[in-house]
Design goal:
CATH class: Alpha Beta
Structural class: alpha/beta
Strand content: 15-25%
CATH topology: Rossmann fold
CATH architecture: 3-Layer(aba) Sandwich
CATH superfamily: P-loop containing nucleotide triphosphate hydrolases
Largest sheet: 6 strands, mixed
Distance between the termini: 50 Å
Shape: globular
Helix content: 25-40%
Amino acid sequence: MNEIPNSASVGDTAVMLSGVSKCYGNTVAVRDLSLEIPRGELFAFLGPNGAGKTTTIKMIVGLLKPNKGVVRVCGHPIGANGLAAKAQLAYVPDQPFIYEKLTGREFLYFVAEMYRLDTKTRDRRLKSLVTALDIGEFLDQLTETYSHGMKQKVVLAAAMLHDPALLVIDEPMVGLDPRTVRAVRKIFSEHTRNGGSVFMSTHTLDIAEALADRIGIIHRGKLIAIGTLDELRSEARREHSLEEIFLQLTEDDDG
């Protein structure tokens, strides 16, 4: 089988949302959201609880269908026939899921088969990820014995195994020790430097401040601010931390 194309074969835009809205009954979770993430960018998506972050993420990865608008990944529309788009992305939710009757290695081999990686490519990439994330010690144990942090590391390895053009990740540092946080930051940096993109949702504002090329803030379903940290400082009329900027923008917005 041929390997599914990776980030080297896609255009300049990793993900584009055009006029996207999502409703649950009479409740509008996301309202007329337009957003474009280029290749090579780490984008941090911030917002209070219930702002629409998770709904947006689920529309990007194809788990939810928007009521209005279009989502494209690497130029391919996400939808009923979104296999070409989904082949270009990887998704790591805030609660990692692994088949508990498999070892970590068996799970990673299973993921590699889904993405049609040949054995040589799989083993080369896996060796690098095992070293970077320090998972070799428990990789051959059943995943039902894993802690949250161990699961998070294996799921991240699975996500990076096929070198996705777009990595969508929700709360990437939850449950990770400081050494692993440093390793994950390095993985993200290398991935974007090599032309991949990262769409990261987080409540950990110092992580967003340290890593993100651009930051978007969603509040009550609307994108209320987007830009570099300096641009957000200018908009918020403050030269202080991202936390202070975030609080001012979300408190001042009337929806």
